[in-house]
Amino acid sequence: MRFSRQMKTVEEALQALLDKLTTLDEEQVQIKEAYGRILAHDIVATCDMPPFDRSPLDGFAVRAADTVHATVEQPVRLRVVETVAAGKVPIIPLEAGCATRIMTGAMMPAGADAVIMFEQTENPGEISEVVGVKRVMRAGENISRRGEEIAMGSVVAKAGERINAGTLAILATFGYTQVSVIRKPRVGLLSTGIELVGIEEPLTPGKIRNSNTTMLSALIAEAGGIPVQYPVLPDDLAGAKEKLTAYIQEVDMLVSSGGVSVGDYDVIASLVDDPDVELLFNRIAMRPGSPTTSLLLSGKPVLALSGNPGACFVGFELFARPALQRQGGQPIVSHRSIKAKLGISYEKPCPYPRYLRGRLATKDGLLLAQPDFNDKAGNLGTLKNSECLIVIPAGGKGKQAGELVEVIVHAAPSWREEV
Ligand SMILES: Nc1nc2c(c(=O)[nH]1)N[C@H]1C(S)=C(S)[C@@H](COP(=O)(O)OP(=O)(O)OC[C@H]3O[C@@H](n4cnc5c(N)ncnc54)[C@H](O)[C@@H]3O)O[C@H]1N2
Ligand code: MOO
């Protein structure tokens, strides 16, 4: 059975997983802790912005009608009745022949309908009881009107958006001290295999250090989840299943690495025929990571990635990140691929689509996708350089430099310029 199961395409497998996932519930966080979180609801403006008519300049609030004869040679002289600083309320309504000295951000006095900047008046550096206006003003000129940017009640940020510095400026301006966000998915992390030793342990023959758990913890945190690390799974099926069943009660998803192929000690693989699990997929038409498996245990998802670090990384990007995005209420980023020109020919034949790690670069202003040739599934030295997955379609020919390829961007591109 384990050797004959039908393969799903990457798209079919991802859909099968996403179909089983729902967005988690919401929680309230203080605005100080909200950076990077996902909004659970639309945010509405609680007042107009600006909240009052204000001056965008340091200058004089005037009545435009008073300035119709003003010229540089013959300025119109107005009596200065008051000075208004930002934060103060003007008390003297402006009458004909008068002006109010006004600072940037200060409230407009009643009766004024324009602001002239200091630089367009006589003796701009001087504080005097009379101001000489050197040009004609239009009614409404240089006034930021109440609500001109944002009207009270309008939606200023949408559910599902990630809170960034700009969102925080909006929340602060509208007086939100707390905000409802989607709870972060708790992701249990497991690895399998008695060859694995801890980072601090010495290497003895046959052993390697467990690098996947540390790598996956970072990827989970980066994707908005909370990694919860569990001990390496025992390599007997009954023991492993018991542990998995206990761990999954404490988290929203389990992600494991290793033990999914057809080896004698592949405990996750042995679970796929278990009547207590609902198998979503097992073996995918892709390279690397074809043994990637997913199943539901106690109704919650287990995503079993390949043990090979390169395949584990690619499997995370293609399946775990979208799954976390779905649970975390975010848009599914891998559904949006872009097209770029392949920078270097990739001619390795492959019966399945190949997801090459790579990076985005520019040459003469054009976008290039540069594959990483150190792409054996067991290699890990260049995982740190990956910012995208370049899709090479199945078939014997691969793709030539300059051909358009599909690219799934998973990290902020560095846009290095190729020379
Ligand atoms: N007869 C077959 N053998 C294999 C097949 C196959 O189809 N038929 N598929 C190969 C492919 S493709 C892959 S990928 C691997 C997947 O193996 P598993 O996911 O079961 O992983 P393991 O066998 O446990 O380990 C593979 C490799 O990765 C190392 N590893 C495991 N865990 C970690 C970790 N946490 N940190 C660092 N490195 C880890 C492990 O020592 C192995 O070297 O199977 C092929 N075989
Ligand atoms: O997933 Mo295995 O990498 O496909 O080598």
TrEMBL record:
Organism for this UniProt entry: Brevibacillus invocatus
GO CC entries: cytosol
Lineage, broadest ranks: Bacteria, Bacillati, Bacillota, Bacilli, Bacillales
Needed cofactors: Mg(2+)
Pathway the protein contributes to: Cofactor biosynthesis; molybdopterin biosynthesis
Reactions it catalyzes: adenylyl-molybdopterin + molybdate = Mo-molybdopterin + AMP + H(+)
Family matches, as Pfam families: MoCF_biosynth (PF00994), MoeA_C (PF03454), MoeA_N (PF03453)
Family classification: Belongs to the MoeA family.
Protein name (database record): Molybdopterin molybdenumtransferase
Any GO MF annotation of the entry: metal ion binding
Record keywords: Magnesium, Metal-binding, Molybdenum, Molybdenum cofactor biosynthesis, Transferase
Gene Ontology biological process terms, A to Z: Mo-molybdopterin cofactor biosynthetic process
Functional summary from the UniProt entry: Catalyzes the insertion of molybdate into adenylated molybdopterin with the concomitant release of AMP.
EC top class named in words: transferase
Enzyme Commission (EC) number: 2.10.1.1
Residues in MoaB/Mog domain copies: 188-326
